[in-house]
Amino acid sequence: MDQQAQRNTEEPNIENPFSPGDQGNLLLEAHLEDSLPRQAESLTAALLDPIEEVITHYPISKRSAALPLLHLWQNHFGFIDESGIEWIARRLDLNSIAILELVTFYPWFRQKVPGKTIIRVCRTLSCAMAGSYEVHEKFCKSTGIDSSLDGHHGMPTSPDKKFSVEFVECLGSCGSAPVCLINQDLAERVSLEDVEVIIKKYS
Length: 203
Fold this sequence. Notes:
203 residues, alpha+beta, Arc Repressor Mutant, subunit A, Glutaredoxin, 9 helices
């Protein structure tokens, strides 16, 4: 066998970028997500009725209803799965990629299950100067969350699934910084001492 033929029969030596532990974690995460029921298979009038009502507000271009529908969907289910993206796209006569682009562009939208209580800490200038970074760190430490994790579309969540903590931009209450949004409740002038009180309240 000549050298060229030998090279063609040799298997390529491709280094595995993941360690066995990484592969196990990725497989487990994929299994957990696949085990969740598809959201589009459990639609009820509680969601369908407001969806249809919102679409009537955009008679010229149904595409303009995409963002309101995504908000309705996430408020109902807590996050937006692949079936939700596909369902909304079909309802608005769009390609799925048009909806996926919105979900992946706006940090507010989530594609994974968040904790029961979502803590959003403002990090814009007024809050940052008033100590919001320290408040965020305390929330993470108190709930067992790695504060260095990137929360974009996969909110850092505590091991017990009770809390998710993320940074957000301006919450519109600069005069009472630092502020946090706890689910839908605005907490103003949050101190480090307040963190444990808030966690206890929402546990």
